[in-house]
Amino acid sequence: MTPGELVRERREQLGWSQAQLAKAAGTGQAMISRIESDRVSPTVGMLTRLAEVMDAQLSLTMFQV
Fold it and tell me: What domain of life does the UniProt record list for this protein's source (predicted)?
């Protein structure tokens, strides 16, 4: 799954709108929309902030090709 898909899935589990998530994370609804639709790649800082406000844990995994 992409970061945007994960954000959308967790937001929907919580029953939140994009506007509610944006307000909690201190960003705009348009940014949440762009993240969820994979039009932008969120920074690690933004993902951390989103995870915190949605009571989730951010986990990064490195792999070799």
Answer: Bacteria
Residue 27: inside a domain, yes or no? yes
**Burial class of residue 8 in the structure, from the number of CB atoms within 10 Å of its CB (0-12 exposed, 13-18 middle, 19+ buried):** buried
Angle between helices 29-36 and 18-25 (to 10 degrees): 110
Range of the domain at 35: 3-53
- Is residue 43 one of the residues assigned to a domain? yes
Q: Assess contact for 56 and 10: CB atoms under 8 A.
A: yes
For residue range 1-48, list pLDDT tens digits in order: 899 999 999 999 999 999 999 999 999 999 999 999 999 999 999 999
